[in-house]
Design brief:
It is a single chain. The chain is built from four helices and two strands. By secondary structure, the protein is mostly helical. It has a two-stranded antiparallel sheet with strand order 1-2. The radius of gyration is 14 Å and the shape is globular.
């Protein structure tokens, strides 16, 4: 019996609809981004949150790329905080789900 696991084939996706109607299919972030997310959850400043959300948005299956400046223009503060919270819940659920 051979076991096989292929890296990069994430099954879980999170759909984010942007204000212009585009949809991003976000994946579970790489470990480096995940570590930053968990480290900053309670003590993040606005600029730190923009940077991490930028990294999250760049983990997508659609090939779109974003800069922190673009993220700051896309999100109102309450949307930024709300997105981070809901996406964190998604990641927590995806990491607990059976493969």
């Amino acid at each position: 019996m051979t076991n096989r696991f292929t890296l990069g084939q994430h099954k879980a996706t999170f759909t984010l609809e942007l204000q212009d109607g585009r949809e991003l299919l976000l994946t579970v972030p790489p470990l480096s981004v995940f570590k930053r997310m968990t480290a900053m959850q309670d003590s993040a400043g606005v600029d730190d949150m923009i940077d991490i959300v930028c990294d999250i948005l760049n983990c997508n299956r659609t090939g779109a790329t974003f800069t922190p400046k673009e993220v700051a223009g896309l999100f109102a503060f309450d949307d930024l905080v709300g997105f981070f919270s809901v996406y964190s819940d998604f990641v927590a659920g995806a990491t607990k789900a059976k493969n």
